[in-house]
């Protein structure tokens, strides 16, 4: 628990998670791809894609570290936040700052939409090859320090889910979050 927000790790397909907003690990085109992005587009359907296309026409896609929001289409969530994680490049090109920005910009956008619950996938740890341990440290620390820094009345989010798909990430998150639980 961080202030009034509960952090939970689950092993699940994020398209099945019932929260206000799920986050997508997209690419700069916003037009879908493989991994979690492919699963979200497939389950979300044509309305979700149509909104991505509109954003693309308006602002040329989404930059690395930034986030945009669309309907969730046929998914159980109300909205999808699409954020673009950095491609791991041996730590070059400010990849850690960019990954941190993905989490912060997603949390800010979720707050703007008055979300009470939010689910993150393990951004950049698949096709973009970011080391899983480092990515988990960044994800958890960024979410906790962002929530800690907000005045309580300003915060609507009361539940953040870290949705893991592979065993490695699940075990890393479980052990990292148990450490945080005992410290807070
Ligand atoms: N639910 C939850 N997590 C999932 C799911 C799912 N259905 N499917 C995969 N993961 P990746 P990236 C996990 O590759 O590394 C796409 O083509 C997976 O185990 O989806 O940020 C985009 O269009 C991994 O831990 O995203 C981009 O081009 C995590 O999601 C590129 O891949 C992220 O893996 C983005 O690469």
From TrEMBL:
Entry-linked PROSITE patterns: MACRO (PS51154)
Domain of life of the native organism: Bacteria
Organism per entry: Paenibacillus pectinilyticus
Gene3D superfamilies in the record: Leucine Aminopeptidase, subunit E, domain 1
Name of the protein: RNase III inhibitor
Coiled-coil intervals, chain numbering: none
Macro domain sequence ranges: 1-181
